Amino acid sequence: MSSSTPTAVHCEKCERELMASSYELPSKRGRLPHCLMCAVRFPSLLRKSLVICLLVGTVLTAINQGNFILAGEFQWAMAWKIPLTYAVPFIVATTGGLLNARAAIRTDA
Ligand SMILES: [Zn+2]
Prior knowledge:
By secondary structure, this protein is α+β, with helices and mostly antiparallel strands. Helices cover 50% and strands 17% of the residues. The strands form 2 sheets. It has a 3-stranded antiparallel β-sheet with strand order 4-3-5. A hairpin with a 2-residue loop joins strand 3 (21-27) and strand 4. Residues 11, 13-14, 16, 34-35, 37-38 line the site of zinc ion. The site of zinc ion (ZN) has 8 residues, from helix 1.
């Protein structure tokens, strides 16, 4: 016996029942609801976040470390900053995409 209600909304990919909100992501059949875990791994979202990460991360690295790199004075002790410089725009772009796709579940249908 299933615990879901007749009007329950389920994730398009993993079939998990969605409670208060979902992430409506594009497909061939229109924008379909997904759970957070499936939305985070959505290929189109990851691809766009990766492009933004590479563009913005490169610009920020050039701004922050470019003068040291070009002068040949880059200190490897500060190399940990570069992956973080790329990670921030990736996280921001992914979070923005998820918030943009978020939708309330309507059970009054
Ligand atoms: Zn799912």
